[in-house]
Amino acid sequence: MSLRALRTLQAISRHGSFARAAETVGLTQSAVSLQIKSLEAEFDVSLFDRSRRLPILTEAGRIVLTRAEEILALYDAIPAALGIEQAITGRLRLGAIQTALFGIVPDALAALTQDHPQARIHLVAGVSATMSLQIASGDLDAAITTEPIGAHPPDLVWTPLYEDHLWLIGPAGTQTKTARELVTKYPFIRFDPRAWAGRIVDKELRRMRLNVREEMVLDSPDIIVRMVERGLGVAVVPLTLRQAQNLPITCLPFGTPQVRRTVVLMEHRSRPSSRLTEALALAIRREGANKLLGTSKSQR
Fold this sequence. Notes:
- By secondary structure, this protein is α/β, with parallel strands linked by helices.
- It has helices at residues 3-15, 18-25, 29-43, 59-76, 78-81, 98-102, 105-115, 128-137, 179-185, 196-208, 221-229, 241-246, 275-293; strands at residues 48-49, 56-57, 90-96, 119-125, 142-146, 156-170, 188-191, 214-218, 234-239, 250-253, 260-268.
- Helix 1 (3-15) packs across helix 2 (18-25).
- The two termini are 32 Å apart.
- InterPro entries: HTH-type_LysR_regulators, LysR_HTH_N, LysR_subst-bd, WH-like_DNA-bd_sf, WH_DNA-bd_sf.
């Protein structure tokens, strides 16, 4: 396995084709294909679904890409760790979905500003679909969003940051209830259907043939959790495993297998990643890894 092969895999994911990836990494298209085949042979998996016209990552491909992004980010951070490069400065107009602000992002931003005090982050909250339009128009430099589903503006690229799962949450004391029993007994608090995460929830509800009695539509997971805590209904929200384990309410895996979503850092293809966005992505991945290990920077 070589770093160049990992960068090639990353380029294909970002640019959506072997040909454009070849231009980005400075190789021929046949050389790009050979590098992907070498990775597949090394890990004994298929990285792409070749039955489709455009390269679509398989589940194994997504796993390899996530680890490749982490390896490359750590490798690229070596010069800064050695003090060879200048401090990261500049201003980033960043959007973020509510669920990210509810979870990993605040600690990641705190670590980033501590490591790079001259960096300035102008942060706004929003839903993924709206922020994708703001990136396309130039109103945002980047956004932390759900991986796009359905229609979205052209020429957007994204870097995977972490995965979380969807959980059906209910009032405390309902641990023995099944998903069907919960949505039958309680009103349903719907995650804003304009959000891509909300569309994922609606699609799975239809697949499971669960008819819900809608009472509220909200886009803040923090507020949704509080409503559920007060016994006002049940809901489906994205949470990390650690959040689900620590909340004082019932949390049941949503879907079989449990539905997951990928949170990404989205940018526009015409505006190359800055050192600040790369540092932000690295900080978020590190914070995600720390939470899995049960540590944070304040504890280290």
